[in-house]
Amino acid sequence: MRDSNECWEWRGTKDRYSYGRFSLDGKKEKAHRISYELHVGPISPGQIVRHKVCRNRACYNPNHLLLGTDKDNQLDKIEDGTNWRNLSYIKALEAKFLRGNGASVRNIAKFFGVSTRAVYGQLSQL
């Protein structure tokens, strides 16, 4: 039996953003969304499932998930410091240094907890 307070780390396939993914009836689904629907209830149009408790994209523990809007999710990122825009200039330079020394954009994104798109955008501005 799983501890209701720990992260339930998805061990299967993950997408490029580290979200658990699988196919259900021929459609690709995110594990945390299906977990939310099974344990909590339906997700209304315009709503997203946020990783509010742990910010671990591979976690599908329904106790760590909260329904909200994209704006709520962006505010969560600002609050916990995982929003790329909140990275200090020093951290942006660190990302540039890592890239210059052979680190992949994907690994840099994982390191800072942001999307690869955000890394490309930030690097293009330095």
Automatic annotation (TrEMBL):
GO terms for molecular function: endonuclease activity. Pfam families: HNH_3. It comes from the Bacteria. Residues 30-74 form the HNH nuclease domain. Transmembrane segments: none annotated. This is HNH nuclease domain-containing protein. It comes from Bacillus cereus. The lineage of its organism: Bacteria, Bacillati, Bacillota, Bacilli, Bacillales.
